[in-house]
User: Fold Amidohydrolase family protein from Paraburkholderia elongata.
Amino acid sequence: MHSHPEAADTLIVGAQLYDGTGAPPVERDVAIRDGRIVAIGNLSNWLAEEVIEANGRALAPGFIDVHTHDDTHVIQSPQMLPKITQGVTTVIVGNCGISASPVSLKGDPPDPMNLLGERDAFQYPTFAAYVEAVNAARPAVNVGALIGHTALRSNQMDRLDRAATAEEIDGMRAQLEEALSNGALGLSSGLAYGSAFSAPTEEVMALAEPLAAAGALYTTHMRTEFDAILDAMDEAYRVGRHAHVPVVISHLKCAGPSNWGRSEEVLKSLEGARRLQPIGCDCYPYNRSSSTLDLKQVTGDIDITITWSEPHPEMAGKLIKEIAAEWGVTQQEAGKRLQPAGAVYHNMSEDDVRRILSHPATMVGSDGLPNDPLPHPRLWGAFPRVLGHYARDAKLLPLEEAVRKMTSLSAQRFGLTQRGEVRIGYHADLVLFDPARVRDAATFENPQQAADGIDAVWVNGVLTYRDGAVTGERAGHFVARGAASKGDAHGAF
Ligand code: ZN
Ligand code: CU
Assistant:
């Protein structure tokens, strides 16, 4: 069993290998067979059906997008162009309290579940049905899934502007347990949104209780990212301690001008808590956020760009203050007339974004919104922007550290076993890119643009994207939470 086979399906030769652990690059050849990495080293005596000359370009584990809203996109647009063109090989769906399953809608999806699609996109009353649909769609990327607290609330409750009763919590727990037994990665919440804001911490704590036995985790779009952010972080820690589960704070940011400059304080809180319990966070590399239009954020102190509006689609791309001026009304009134709508909020300081992005506990996640007609450019640009703009051009962090934040850190934290590193025996999710050319091309004005410098992407050993074009192969599938490897999972935090 220890004689080394010398034939591969694919051989990538002469690469600068970034193995995902944060180690500096080394020149290596990598062999792939049957979807796995079977050899790493000098493989000049190997044969392969396909040989790819890396010519000193960077080879890294395929990127893991830990924060997506691709729940229905992986089924409806399985080619997954916005992600595969960035070198992303695995997406985690179900963030911010909203998931496509398990969901049985009684009417239109409540805000912000409408980010995932309209009523007819929600066809998965059980998590098992969702898993089946993902695999039947044969997406180009692997798909891991969280279960949204708001989605569970919408199943069990007649109205969302109140706390759930004990009976409703039992109903939510039963649905969460079904999902966990079918490989869901954990529970997400979106406590800032009106559809979950009335849920007391105790409701989330009770719902989080089954996670530990399943080796799952809790992620949260916190109750606020504005002035009371430290309290919101404490709430997240409290849920983690109560349920004995790791916590991921989603898209950590200091939102709103009165909150700018507080990232140091925020990270100090995170570090303090990390001494007591496993906690991490993700962030996207931009100083503007995006979601549905929230009238509470229409205060006049920041610019807000409208990206879509059901009654006024012609206003997409305009600032709300311009629309208000055009209509001769206040910004609040304009916001009301535009609803339901989507928005980009110019609500972060660049210094804070940089400090949070470069913190060792921070993973990269796009938070991209694939159903938005004028999506925030993070949908197509997040990963190459970290590699090109922040690591190479701004020298904010070494390239190997940028890669770690997109690969091994993410895989360990979310329990995606045998992914996130270039290692013998691991799944052959790989990206070949040019460190000199890699660059995000998506902009706020023109956001649906493939990145430059991502030269080849393999998913489960299958070449899926090469030289700016998809190959037509789609080799992704649903990935279940890995068997608990406790040492590993905690080491990652
Ligand atoms: Zn969110
Ligand atoms: Cu999100």
In short: Residues 290-345 form a domain with the Dna Ligase; domain 1 fold (CATH 3.30.1490.130). The chain has 16 helices and 20 strands. The radius of gyration is 22 Å.
